[in-house]
Amino acid sequence: MEKLLNTYVLPAGGLEEVARHFQMSDLTLPFWGYRKKMPMYQIVRLEGEGNYTRFHFNDGSELMVSLTLKKMETRLPAGLFVRLHKKNIVNLMYLEDIQYDQQQMTVGLANGDQVDVSRRKANQFIKQVQDFQQEIRSLNGIPLVASA
């Protein structure tokens, strides 16, 4: 696979500062008979499974909620969370690399997940990544590390 775009990884300490900059609040998720607040910046990606959405967090934990991925997408900040195809939304704060191989684009995330990007969404995705990284570079005090 060929590396498509130089990406910059946020250090762990920079995540909270970026979350403050983008005014990321906690996300209230429904559970059996109650609701629970989860820090939005800790979400690495969301994976749609029918009428359910599986959350993958930066500590390796996962959580399933009974809301569709489409419904969850409306509750997330568009500049940070990007829908790559019909089953996955990723948090750009955890993007490590973007690779391209024979018309298939794949992103690597900080938790080790590899997610394919649909051909239809590829150009929009690259533009969103560039805009996000430009805004991150403009923040003072957050060192960025170029991914290998």
List the helices and strands and how they pair.
Elements: E1 2-5, E2 8-9, H1 12-21, E3 26-31, E4 34-39, E5 43-49, E6 52-57, E7 62-65, H2 69-73, E8 81-85, E9 88-91, E10 95-101, E11 104-109, E12 114-117, H3 122-138, E13 145-146
Antiparallel strand pairs: 1-10, 2-13, 3-4, 5-6, 5-9, 6-7, 8-9, 10-11, 11-12
How would you describe the overall organization of this protein?
There is one protein chain. The protein has a single domain, classed as LytTr DNA-binding domain (OB fold (Dihydrolipoamide Acetyltransferase, E2P), Beta Barrel), CATH 2.40.50.1020. It contains three helices and 13 strands, in the order E-E-H-E-E-E-E-E-H-E-E-E-E-E-H-E. The chain has helices spanning 12-21, 69-73, 122-138; strands at residues 2-5, 8-9, 26-31, 34-39, 43-49, 52-57, 62-65, 81-85, 88-91, 95-101, 104-109, 114-117, 145-146. The strands form four sheets. It has a five-stranded antiparallel beta sheet. It has a four-stranded antiparallel beta sheet with strand order 1-10-11-12. A two-stranded antiparallel ribbon has the order 2-13. It is an alpha+beta fold. It comes from Nibrella viscosa. Residues 37-131 form the HTH LytTR-type domain.
